[in-house]
Fold these 4 entries.
Entry 1:
Amino acid sequence: MTAVLTAPAAPDLDAAAVKRPFALARHSLALAWRNLVKTMRNPEQLLDVTLQPIIFTAMFGFLLGGALAGDTAAYLQTLVPALMVMLTLFASIQSGTNFSTDLKSGLFDRFRSMPIGRSAPLIGAVLGDAIRYVVTIVVLLGFSYLLGFRIETDPARALAACLLAIGLGFALSWVFLLLGAVMKEPGSVQGIAFIVTFPLTFGTNMLTPTASMPGWLQAWMDVNPSVYAMDAARGLMVGGPVATPVAVTLAWIAGIIAVFAPLAVAAYRRRT
C-alpha cells in the first residue's frame, strides 16, 4: 500500500494577522513609516507643499490686503488661518495620486502576499502623508510671521487649529484614495481631485466676507465643511466663535471618514 502524502494547507496569513490584537494598527504604522521614509529620501515630493504656502500667501496678501483690509498685515490675520485649511486640503490630493501610482506599479500585489491586514496599506498611505500637512503648515506660519501675521490667542489653541486642519485633510484623503482605487491613471485622479477641491476651498469666506456673496453661494457655504474649518481656525488662532465651528468640523470629519474609508477599502479589495 502506498501512502499518499498531502501537504498541509497554507494558513490564511491575512486572516490570522487581522485577528491578532492591534495587528492592523501595527501594520498600518509600519507602512506609514515606509511612506514617510520614502518621502524624506525624495524631498522633491515636498516641493509643492513648500512653495504653495509662500505663493498663495504673497499673492492673496499683497493683491487683496490693501483693498479689503487697508493693510496687508491686518488682512493676514483673517487670511492665514483659512489659508491653512485650504493648503492642507490641497496637500491631501497627493494621497490619491501616490496610491494610484503604487497600484499601477504592482506594489500592492506584493502587499497581498504579506501577512498584513488588507486595509493596512490604505491606512498607512494616509498616515504617511501627514508629513505633507506638517510641512505646509510650518512653511505657511513661518512665512506669514515674516509678513506680519501674529497668533492672538495662545499656542495650545493655535495647535488645535492646526490639528483640525490636518484632520479635515486626513478625512478628504479617503475620498482621493477611493478615486485612486477606481481610476486607472494617476493623472486622472489628480484632475478629478482638483475639481473636487476647488469648490471646497474657494467657495468659502477665505478671501472675502460671506455677506458679500450672492445668495446661491451663501447657500453652498452653509453646507461646505471647509467654511466651518476656516471659521474654527480663525477663532482658535486670532479670536472669535469656536464651539460651533469646531463641533461642525469634527462632525464632518467623522462623517467623511465613516462613508469614504469603507468605500475606499472595498474598491481597493476589488482592484487587487
Entry 2:
Amino acid sequence: MTDMTTGDSADARLHIVVPYRDREDHLRQFVPWVSAYFDRLVPRIDYRVTIVEQEAALPFNRGALKNAGFLLGEGQSDYTCLHDVDYLPVDADYSWADCPTPILWFGAEQRPVAPGRSDRTVTTNLESTMGGALLMPNGVMRQVDGYSNQFWGWGYEDFDFSLRIRARRIPTGRRKGRFQPLDHDNDGFTPDAAPSPISLVNRRVFQELWSTGKIPAGDGLSTLSFDVLDRRPCDGGIPGAHGRWEIVRVRFNHRPRPDQEAATAAH
C-alpha cells in the first residue's frame, strides 16, 4: 500500500464501502448517481465501490459489514469511505483525507422516522456524527481496529467508533458536503419517535463495552470472521463504471446476543 504520509495524495486510491441489505430501490438510485458524480470530478479520483450485502439469516450488522468491506479492499486502496446507501452526493469532497473525516453535512440535518406514517423526525448532531459518509485512511482504520462487531439490529456502532477514535486522541477533520437523502423507516425509533426495543438493547451493549473506562479490545477487524457467499458486478452498464462496482454477499460467523435477537424479532 502507498505510504500517503510521504507520497502524492493525488494518487491515493479510494475504496467506497456500502453496507447493504434489502434496499433495492435505494441501490438502483445510488449506483448511477455516484458513478455519474465521480465521472464529473476534476481532478479525478481513482475509486472502486464494494456493496457489502449481508445474508438474510441474522439481524443486520452495519459495523461488521463495514469491517468486512474494508478487509475486502484494503490491499487495493489507500483510504476508505464508509458510505450509507441512502445518501447521494450533490457537492461533496471525497479526496484524500489524512485523518478520520466525515463529509456528510447538508441533507442530514433532520430525517423522518416513518415516511408517510408519521410526521416525527430525528435530528442529527452534525458537529459530532461519524455516520453517513466517512473518509478513513486505511492506517487509521487499522489503528482503531475498525468498528465493533457487537451491534446487531440498529444503532450505536457509529457512536462506539467515534469513541474508539477520540479515546486514542486521533485528530479528526470535517467537510461540509451536501447530499440528497433517501427517506426510509428508521429502525431506531417507533413512529411516535420513542426509542425502539433494539436501540435500547444496543445502548446497553455500548455501556457494557465502555464500562471499565478503557478502550474495548479484541472486537473489530482483528476478530471478524466471515465467509464470502458470492460476488457479482454491480455497474448497471454505466459507461466508465465497468469493473469499479461489485456486490459481495457475506455471512458472519458470530451471532447476536439473545436480547438483540428478541428485540429485532419484536420490531
Entry 3:
Amino acid sequence: MEWRDEGIILGTRRHGETSAILELMTREHGRHMGLVRGGRSRRMQPLLQPGNRVDVIWRARMDEHLGMMQVEPVSFAAARLIDQPVALYGLQLAAAHLRLLPERDPHENLFEILSVILEHCENALIAGELLLRFEVLMLEELGFGLDLKRCAATGSDQHLTFVSPKTGRAVSRDAGAPWADKLLEMPPFMVSSSVRAASLAEITAAFRLTSFFFNRHVWEPRAQKAPEARQGFLAAISRSLSSASAQGHSGQERSVLP
C-alpha cells in the first residue's frame, strides 16, 4: 500500500529512541498517522512541528497498518506561529476537533479551511471568524449541520438574527423577537461569507452558539468536555484585540501632543 499527499502537521509523539509517530491532516486521506524513522533527530525535529506543511509518502504492507511516512517540507509555519498565542491555540483547537472524526476519512474542505486559518492567524478577528466557520463545518461533517440560510418560521433569508436551540435552524429578527430570550444569538458574519466579524462580542456570541450544539450532539454524548484550547483561543483573541485597542489609543494621544 502506498500513497502520496500534502499534509499539515497536527502533532507528534516519540516512538522508541529515535523515531516519532506523526499525525497529519492530509488533503485527500483525512487525518492520518504514520511512523517517521529518525523523527527525533536534529535534522527532522524542526520539520516535524505542528503547523508545518509537508509532502508525505505513506507506505504499509496492509491498509490497516500504521505504516511508514517519508516527509519533505512544503512550508514552515511553526516558526511564525510560535510567538502568536491566537495561532497556537487555534491550531490546537482545530486538531482537537479533527480528532472527533474517524482517522483516514477524507475531509478536503476541512483541510482547505485549516490551511487558510494558518495563513491568516496574525489577525485575531479573522482567525476567530475562520475557526468559527471551521466549527460550523465540523458540525456538518459530524452529521449535525446547522441550517442558517432561511428563517424556520417565515422562509425569508433577510435579517436572520437567531438560531433555534431545538432545531439548529435560523430565525429572523421579527419572527424571533417574542422568544429572543430562548433563542441563540447569531452574528451577521455567520449568515454570509461576505460579511466580516466586527468585534470580540460577535466572535464570543458565535462561539457560544456552536458550543451549545457541540455540547448537545458531540461532547456530552461522548462523555467529553470542550477542548481546553477553545477557551485559550478565545482568551488569546481577547488579549490581542485589547492590546491593539490600547496601542491605537496610545497612538492617538501621541498624535495630538505638541
Entry 4:
Amino acid sequence: MSVPTVVVHRDADVLAKAVAARIITRLVDAQSAKGSASLVLTGGTVGIATLAAIRDTPARDAVDWRRLDIWWGDERFLPTGDPERNETGARQALLDHVDLDPERVHVMLGPDSGLSAEESADAYATELAKAARPEDHGAAPAFDVLLLGMGPDAHVASLFPGMPALYDTRAAVAVHGAPKPPPTRVSLTLPVIQGARQVWVVAAGEEKSGAVRLALSESGPVQVPAAGARGRGGTLFLLDRAAAGKIPPGLGRIASP
C-alpha cells in the first residue's frame, strides 16, 4: 500500500473545487493512456460539492464521459430516488448533466429491487468481478480514482469502527446496525479499496480533525477504518485547514493561501 500524501486547502469550498480539478485531470490522463477510466464516488457534503464543481467547470468537457465507468464506495439501502441515497445526490449534482453511458453507471441496488441488502451486495460483487481484468489482480477493477469521505469516527465508505464488515474479504458486503442512519447499507470492503490505483480521502471540518490524525498514524483499520484507506499506486488525504488542524506539523502541504 502507498504512503499517504496530505494536501491542505483553505476551506471546504476551495477543497471541493480543487478535488474536482484533480479528478478531471486524472480521468483525462487515464483515458489517454488506456481508452477508458473508472471513478468511485462517495456521498457527503464535500463529496457532492465536488461533483457539482465538476459540473460547473468548462474543463469537464475534457473528459469523454461515454468512456467512463461510475461506481460507488457505499450506498444507503434505500429505494431508488430516495434523497438520502448517495446515487440520488450524485445524479442531481453531476451525473444527470453529462453524457454518460447508462450501462457504465454501476449502482448499488436498494430494497425496491426486491433484493435484500445481502443480495444487493452479492449482485454488486458479481458486477465488480465482471468488470475486473486479469491485470487488476483481484475481484474488482483497479479503479483509477476511488473517492472516500470520512466520518468523525474515522469510518470510510460504510466501514465503521469495530464492525464485522472490516474483516470481510468479499468485494462488497451488507452492513447492518450502522451507528449513523440509515442502519442498513451496502459497502465495498477494504481489499477492494486497497486495490484501487488511487485512493483519495476528502475531509473538511474541525470535527474530522481527530479522525484525520488517527488515520495518518500507525492505527489499525479495525478501530480506525480510514487508516486502511490506501491505494495501490497512490493515496491522497485532501483536507481543508480545519480538518488538518491536529496533524503533526510539516505533514501536510498548503495548496491555497
